[in-house]
Amino acid sequence: MNFPLAVDIAFILLALFAVYTGWRVFRTDSMVRASFFLLLSFIAVGAIMLLLSAMYLGVAMFFMMGVEMMVMALFMVMFMMNPAGLNPMMMVHQHRLAIGAGIASFVIVAAMALLARFPHRPLPADLQAVPSLGNELLGESMLIFESVGVVLLATMIGVVVLSSQRGRYGNAGEGSMPPGLEPGGEPAGMPAKDDEEGGGHHHCH
Amino acid sequence: MTLTTVLLLAAALIGIGIYGALSQQSFVMLMMGLELILNGVMLAAVGFWAMSGAGAPEGQLLTIVVMAVMAIEMAMGFALVVAVYRGKQADVTEAIADLRH
Amino acid sequence: MILDQLVWPLTWVLAALVLGPYLLAVLDGLVARSLGPTRGPGIWLAPLSRGAWWLIQHTNVTEAPDGRAWRLAPALYLALAAGGLALVPWSRTWVATDIATSLVLWGSIEALATVVIFLQGWSANTHLTLVGAYRYVALGLSYILISMFVLIGVALPAESLALTQVITSQQELWNVLRQPLGLPLFLIVGLAITFRGPFNLADSTDLAGGTSADVSGAQRLVWEFARSAMLVAFSGIATTAFLGGWLGPWLPGPLWVAFKMLAVLALLAWLGPAFARITPERCVSLMWVVLLPLAFVDLIWAGVEALL
């Protein structure tokens, strides 16, 4: 398959952008920024899919990942001590191992890409990508499609069960403490407990 | 743009994703690593579909399935984060080390 | 006695109570006239002079904002609006972006708009803008689903995801009549995506301007311009999806599109101020409990109609 020069240039730029933003995800101070960098990486990959004439999948990447990363950013702000990213942040463990594993997996997959011989069978000129996908989804692969739907439904139920306030051991929020100001520290915002009985010695705040 | 270059890009994304998934302490950042891996997988699937599979519709179907896997991964991940946060006030992987036993 | 001690003081106080605020308002107006750009311009010049005012206004800076994102967010919103406008077919052949999945692309523009508006509110690093951003996301995640179902309903009779096909499928009957629930639901989406009128949760006055609270100068100009541009793009899509686009007798197609877009814009401009703003909680409940099931009904209607 021979692409025009403009497509090649666009591919190179998008590929560099996707790798750069993907790398920035783990190198930025703020988690909100990280999730939006990831979104940019997804958008670049979606645009490459459009270049490969997967019209539906490329556009689907945009809206799927737009909503997904939005939700991700929300959760970031909810759980992180440093959502705005004003302080430098580096929360990593087993860093060397991770770098090694990342490079090793890149080398292995890249070697497969470079050394293996794949048949050269480009898209037929008259292929209509979107109708072909639709016919497959609701035709021969109906069972797969329906199974995915059932799994998604099961996920919804599981998610509600996991995150719902009421569990079979009582209210999930019961007895839970607000997080400490430093890791492992005293719960923040809780009044000091008087354990001595009849102490009668109350702090006034 | 050839199949090899597309696969190289996919390999780079998978490599960065594996680094992120193994190195990050925060659950949410860990999930970002997983998503980046799936990003590379989807790109490779579309690349094979367009250049080596002669447009067989199963190639696109595989990508749709990976997208659904991504959605499931994220929903379950966030539900687990919420559950762990309720119990332990923590959002880092070290906090649930006692699940090993 | 009574006159001196009760009636006159009461009258005096009441008169002051009524006249004082009125005079204050007149004074405010005089001050605004002597300082601001509201002197002179009629309705045709007022937007221009306000734009010029924003352009030369000093640009506000907050404490430690995410500078790049803060500068980029209005421009990105404008870019999304431009992208939406590029999808509108003006005639059978006159389409800027004629791809097979333009309807889905509009859906992704709506989804990305949520991200951009959140970015605008978050990156200023101030309290009220972040509250506005959060409210918008709550709203955005709700209206996106409604929009998707309504648009799927439009795609069903067209048997295509391309907007040009959607228009040609309306040769006999426009979708506004064929799917009576579609256009009202879609107009609500339009008000929500540009946070106007009853759905102005993000930039509302109770947040002192919300996402645009700390934005001034050229940045503010771009932000407000992008909001309006997004509404124009939305009216183009609404025209295409429900009002038959270029279809119409006597006149050439592009003129019909322009007329219909103007009509949708006028309707939206009237709908915005005609309804009071809803509180965020009730707004989200309304979206999920009432409007989303209505969107389901619309989709079932479209499906049954396509089968018959």
Detail the topology: elements first, then pairings:
The complex is a heterotrimer of chains A (205), B (101) and C (308).
Chain A: H1 5-24, H2 31-51, H3 55-79, H4 95-115, H5 129-137, H6 142-163, E1 166-167, E2 170-171
Antiparallel strand pairs in A: 1-2
Helix pairs in contact in A: 1-2, 2-3
Chain B: H1 3-23, H2 27-51, H3 57-88
Chain C: H1 2-35, H2 46-56, H3 67-87, H4 102-123, H5 127-158, H6 163-168, H7 175-178, H8 182-193, H9 217-242, H10 253-274, H11 280-307
Helix pairs in contact in C: 2-9, 3-4, 3-9, 4-5, 5-8, 5-11, 8-9, 9-10
Please describe what this structure looks like.
- The complex is a heterotrimer of chains A (205), B (101) and C (308).
- Chain A is mostly helical and 205 residues long.
- Chain A is built from six helices and two strands.
- Helices cover 58% and strands 2% of the residues of chain A.
- The radius of gyration of chain A is 25 Å and the shape is extended.
- Residues 195-205 of chain A have low confidence and may be disordered.
- Chain B has 101 residues and is mainly alpha-helical.
- Chain B has helices at 3-23, 27-51, 57-88.
- In chain C, helix 2 crosses helix 9 (217-242), helix 3 runs antiparallel to helix 4 (102-123) and helix 5 (127-158) packs antiparallel against helix 8 (182-193).
- Chain C is globular.
- The relative contact order of chain C is 0.13.
- Classes of the chains: A mainly alpha (205), B mainly alpha (101), C mainly alpha (308).
- Chains in contact: A-B, A-C.
- At the A-B interface, helix 1, helix 2, helix 3, helix 4 and helix 5 of A face helix 1, helix 2 and helix 3 of B.
- Chain C: It holds the Pfam family NADHdh.
- Chain C: One of its GO terms (biological process) is aerobic respiration.
- Chain C: Belongs to the complex I subunit 1 family.
Overall average pLDDT of chain A: 79
Please, how many helices of chain A?
A: 6
The portion of residues assigned to helices of chain C is over 70%
**Oligomeric nature of the chains:** heterotrimer
Q: How would you spell out the order of helices and strands of chain A?
A: HHHHHHEE
Instruction: Name the poorly predicted regions of chain C.
Output: none
Tally of DSSP β-strands of chain C: 0
The largest sheet of chain A has its strands arranged as 1-2
Task: Tell me the major beta sheet of chain A.
Answer: 2 strands, antiparallel
The most extensive interface between chains reads: A-B, 89 and 74 residues
Using only CA atoms, what is the Rg of chain A?
Answer: 25 Å
| Major sheet of chain C | none
Helix content of chain A: 55-70%
Separation of the first and last Cα atoms of chain C: 86 Å
